[in-house]
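Bit of a strange request maybe. I'm writing a small parser for structure token strings and I need a real example to test against, not something I typed by hand. Could someone generate the tokens for this chain?
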Amino acid sequence: MSGDNTERIRISASKLRTWMQCPLQAKFQYVDKLPRGQNSSASYGACIHHALQIYNQTGDVEAAISDFIHTWEHPEELDVVPDTWTKGTNFGSLRSRGLATLRNYHEQVKWDSREVIATEHPFVVPFGEFDIVGFIDLVEGHKDGRGNHELHIVDYKTNKKQPFRNNLPWDVQFTCYSYAPTQREFWFGTDDSPPVPDAEVRWERYKNSQPRGYWYHLETNKEIFTGLRDDEDYMRLYRIAKEMARALEYEVYVPNLSGDSCTFCSYQKPCGLPIPKKDEML
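Reply from user aminoacidic:
Good idea to test on real output. This should exercise your parser:
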């Protein structure tokens, strides 16, 4: 898909997911750019991701552990200083959890069966009149049982809970991540994103293959296949992007008043939506 518009709207998986959850929350975050709180779980996740990037580049688990200890003790270097602590967590418990996670991951990974293509890879790819932007934690090359090349897209998750497997084929994050490698810009880079090493060779190797997405649960070291994507999934993603663009154009942001949206929302104070009184229905 391509578009001729000179002003292109940039979308990301996190932005689309927020819009799907609550358009008003998305307005506060992406239009008004109101400050958000930083909780300890998000800070922990950022430090673990940073350490895993080093591990996947070097295979040195001790270097990754040292990096995690340093960034966890100095979160300001990653701009992830927590201002609230998730219930049941503290500095020491998350530190211990991080060390165990890295060592367990090291024991799980089979280096001889994979090719690390890129880590924390930023990309910008065209998508109709939009550009999809994002970071992929790990891009790996594998071979299937017949010796055919496979491209694996891995996203690390530090959540304690695993997702419902039936929901993963609908996950917009992995739809974005599966679409991106099908575009030449993912491999060769743009003015705003770097190329992948040996881009020409890898583009020719993987351009006709369907990327396989994996939701990697670090808490249990389980790699969960998220399902293959096709044009129907990409057109669903396009429809979501069009709905977001329409809301921006008309400045209409309908709030989603649900437990999932409101309970954990970072913008409860600026939202301040009043609950109507019964007589207002009459």
